[in-house]
Amino acid sequence: MRACLIRTAVLAGGVAMAMVVPGAIAPSRAQAVVATGVGTPFELAFWQSIDSSNDPSLYESYLVRFPNGTFSEIARAKIITLRGRMVAQPAPATPPGTVPVAPPPPTFGPAPAVTYPVAVPATPAPPLAPAPVPAPVVTPAVQQPMPAPAVQAAPAPQPAVMTPVSMPVPAPAPMQPAQIQATPVQAPAIQAAPAVVTPAPAPAVASTAVASASTLGQLLAALANSQAGGAPALLSASAPAPTGAGHAATQPGTANSPGPANSSGAANLVVAPSAPVSGSRTLAAGFAVPPQPVLAAVPSVALPPSFCSAEARNAFHDAVYAPSVNVAKQNNDAAAAYLRQLQAMYDEYQLSHDPDTMNAIVAAARGYQPVAQTTFSTQAALVRQFTALMAVPVVPCSQPGQPPATTLAK
Amino acid sequence: MRAGTLIAAMLAVTGAQAARAACIEEPVANAARLHEFGTLMMDVSLRCGLMGVTMQPHYEDMVHAHQAQFDDAVRRLQHFFATSPAGGAEARHGGLYDRYATLIANRYGGGNTSLDSCHLLDGIAVELARAGDGGRMLGAVAQAMIAHPVLEQATCPKQP
Hints:
The structure holds 2 protein chains of 2 kinds. Chain A has helices at 2-11, 41-50, 56-65, 72-88, 105-108, 202-226, 310-348, 355-391, 405-408, and strands at 281-282, 288-289. By secondary structure, chain A is an all-alpha fold. Chain A has a two-stranded antiparallel ribbon with strand order 1-2. In chain A, helix 3 (56-65) runs antiparallel to helix 4 and helix 7 (310-348) runs antiparallel to helix 8 (355-391). Chain B has one domain. Chain B contains 9 helices and no strands. Chain B has helices spanning 3-18, 26-50, 56-65, 67-82, 88-92, 95-107, 115-130, 136-145, 150-155.
């Protein structure tokens, strides 16, 4: 019953689009086999968490769970090897019959710095050609923060309007596989079992077991984090904060992707600096809406009719275009961060039964959305302008009527 | 079963982390963790189904295998919200719990799901459905995946 209720709530929103279409072809179990040939991903994760261990009990655990698993033969060989070495060189301080256990919690103390096995986008190599790095395609549907752009690349704008504060509206599930980014959790490559295993003392074995468990835990935590991307969608103007019972499921909204901005026009590229809120608006409950970020003016980029050379175009890119894009990106990032901050505050007050504060946050976010849309449009327009920049013809300056390159990079 | 060695080690690690969340009672935190994990798996199963990974039957098997644990978690959370001093009439009528459940569903309603993550989570669902250890493995996985549940973040004061 509970699952049905929640599922109903979820399906009422965008996740409903993720329902399995009746009659759809059910993939076979063979699809569960990962590309590495391992039986199940869990088996792979299990094995990877123990394959560097010198504790034979871990391999026994693997065999118990996966008696006919992909690595069962390796596990049996390792057990024989490790047991043989442990007999030849018994651990000095291990009482008979004891099982290597985790050290007491103080050994681990604070949580270790979690380094999620996240697929890091490879930094593109510097371009061999002297031409500027092309700007990435603007993808308003991006839901994750963009990685740091390359040095010369025009950063793709992160749509600030995708993460504004709103009532808790189910965010749409990714519908098209083409829009789905690379999985943030990449299972590390399978390592071959070492031919020679050096036995470790018993305490080290216990530590290894815990370390393996910690690795598995980190993998699971990263996996969970990758699924926690459901940011509520845009505000609905008629969606005030709930003031009574029965408002848990809120008005469905639409995740407005920012509309295409004007692709050209220097006037449209200038973002008027947003006047920062002087002081904070304090509510009766003692809550203060954070001040809006200060946005910088984005220099306009006026393309010349031609360049004297490819080097002149590159100079223009470095001196005029790239700085303008950077300013626009900083503005957009700041706007997105501000909306995320409001979103976090809204989420924090979700359970506080404080509709006044929630409505104040909603109003602040609603008021800031035009600014956020402008910052996004500005950056998107600049990114699109890269194509126009590269389309400017290169005409040798020796020909009459061509402006010198120095005047182009103003 | 020696598989417990790894899980016990995981529990030792994650238990040390969870011990810091003392502003809500540990059973409530565990219930929130389990409920959040179940919602995560439900949302993921829906998304993965659309992508061609038939995960929903495995998710349902997992829920069925651990129905008692999931139901107990819901009861704990409902009691927690029903007795919340801030809830008032809304809390007594279950509004706060409903709002919380929706919040959790929204949190995992738009995750970055890929075929790889679908297969991984599907494998976890299969393993949990098989585990007949009284919820021990389920608790360990939920502990590892949901280290800090939303309820803890919403109710505990922020650390400076």
